[in-house]
Amino acid sequence: MNALGLGKFYSNQSVNNAMDGVNVLSPSILKDVNFSNPSTWHNLKFTFLSLSYSADQTSIETSQFSNGYSGLSNALWVIPIKSRYSFGLSIAPYINQKVVLVEQDTVSFTAFDDTLRISRSFKRSGGLLCLNVGSSYQLTQKISLGIITRVLFGSSRQSESVKFSGSNVIQASRSRYNGLISDLFLSMKLRNEITLFSSFKKTLKPVENAKLNKYLFDDANSNGFHDWSSPYYDFPFPDSIVAFSEYRISDVHNPSGIQFGISKLLNKKWSAAFEWSFEKDNSKELKNINFPLNNWIEKTNSFKISFSRFASPLSLKIFDKVSIRSGLKYSSYTLGNNNKVIQEYGCSIGSGYKFKSVGNQIDLNFCFGYRDYPMSSDRELFQQLQMSISLADIWFIKRRQK
Q1: Which H or E run includes 398?
Q2: H helices within 274-330, ranges in order?
Q3: Residue 88: inside a domain, yes or no?
Q4: pLDDT tens-digit map of 179-191
Q5: For 366-375, what is each residue's pLDDT tens digit?
Q6: What is the CA angle 202-134-156, rounded to 5?
Q7: How many C-beta atoms lie closer than 10 Å to residue 27's C-beta?
Q8: In a domain, 37, yes or no
Q9: Does the CA dihedral 155-258-382-62 come out positive or negative?
Q10: In 3D, which of 101, 77, 104 has the Cα closest to residue 88?
Q11: Among 29, 103, 46, which residue's Cα sits nearest to residue 399?
Q12: Is 119 left (phi over 0), alpha (psi -120 to 50) or beta?
């Protein structure tokens, strides 16, 4: 997926954080709280700081090659105010653009009584981060609103190289991105412990790409850099050429979407939930960017079902302090260039342990599944291990009451 469009969206990558599992709207860590849904934040009793770290791996079913990476997947700070308002900040990766493609077939031809061979490769690294600012307001005892404003920013570098009988010619470029997206959330409690959730996504400022192309150069030592120090001198010398001007491509990412969810509290500890989401990228200029696979995801349709067991921090029994969450996910991704569909099937299972009376919690979540691509008969297998720690802070509340 990293080679499609701008890269792989973290929203399409297993789970957002270990506390919520596959749920995006419905409660998971507590019977009325989901850290991904700001309309539930005011139900927290204390200020929360949560950090999540994930390790991801993807591979092709019939190949021994795999792609793996790890890093901080979410950092969140939420402040509930008088059990009616809340304010939160978080930062998380938004797009992963890391991809390396190497042409397996070498083209050979004869010229001037010499056999010449050509092979090509494409490399891209970097991505986008997302700074989220959110808040909630409880309208009535049954209806709550939430909003998140997402500030997108980041950069990437890419290079295309042609190896020509020992000579490696490289075309490099650099891109910078920025954009602004907003999500509105609604929670509504019904009878019989049933709660409805919804969210609506709107782009306030489409993501803009400021791109700078570099001059072609002959990479003498094949290190991928334009060197100008001894003993390696790449042609042409960097100080003998004038750099290209940076140009801007507006509207390379312009998402809009809608999500619905329903949860049912089965008893004091267990709940079941179902969620559906649809998202479309309305970008007008995305097709004008050079992609590794010359395609991008235009529409995403997802269905999720989950079961959660909530922990009781006040109980003296160890098992009562353990929370359990599991879920199944199906997603279809419609490609913009040919309307073909990528299908994804995933399963998630996780557990958490509460300690201290304020509700500190350590969570571990494992997600795995596969994707079927229309352009290939081989399945892509994916798995993700995610760990998080959530600390509830009582000092802020004590200070505020003075």
Answers
A1: helix 395-401
A2: none
A3: yes
A4: 999 999 999 999 8
A5: 999 999 998 7
A6: 65
A7: 24
A8: yes
A9: negative
A10: 77
A11: 46
A12: beta
Phi and psi at residue 7, in whole multiples of 5°?
140, -165
Residue count of the chain, please give it: 402
Return the number of other C-beta atoms located less than 10 Å from residue 82's C-beta: 9
| Enclosing domain of residue 274 | 8-401
Q: Is 40 left (phi over 0), alpha (psi -120 to 50) or beta?
A: alpha
As beta bridge partners, residue 329 has 304, 346
We report the CATH number of the domain holding residue 27 as: 2.40.160.60
* Count: domains in the chain: 1
- Residue 3 falls within a domain, yes or no? no
- Kindly state the tokens that stand for 125: 């690294």
Residue 246, SS3? coil
Entry pTM: 0.87
Q: Is 47 a domain residue?
A: yes
Collect contacts of 332-335 with beta carbons under 8 A, ≥24 apart: 332/300, 332/301, 332/302, 333/12, 333/297, 333/299, 333/300, 334/297, 334/298, 334/299, 334/300, 334/301, 335/4, 335/295, 335/296, 335/297, 335/298, 335/374
Structure tokens at 192: 């019989």
Residue 364 in contact with residue 344, Cβ under 8 Å? no
Selection from 325, 384, 331, 315 nearest residue 352 by Cα: 325
Nearest Cα to Cα of residue 307 among 331, 280, 328, 330: 328
Q: Which two tokens stand for residue 11?
A: 């929203």
Residue pLDDT, tens place only, 287-320: 777 777 778 899 999 999 999 998 886 777 888 8
Report the amino acid identity of residue 59.
S
DSSP tag of 33: B
* Concatenated DSSP letters of 189-207: E-STTEEEEEEEEEEEEEE
Strands (E), 214-340: 217-219, 228-229, 232-233, 247-253, 255-265, 270-281, 297-309, 322-335
Q: pLDDT for 162-207, tens place per residue?
A: 877 667 788 888 899 999 999 999 999 998 899 999 999 999 999 9
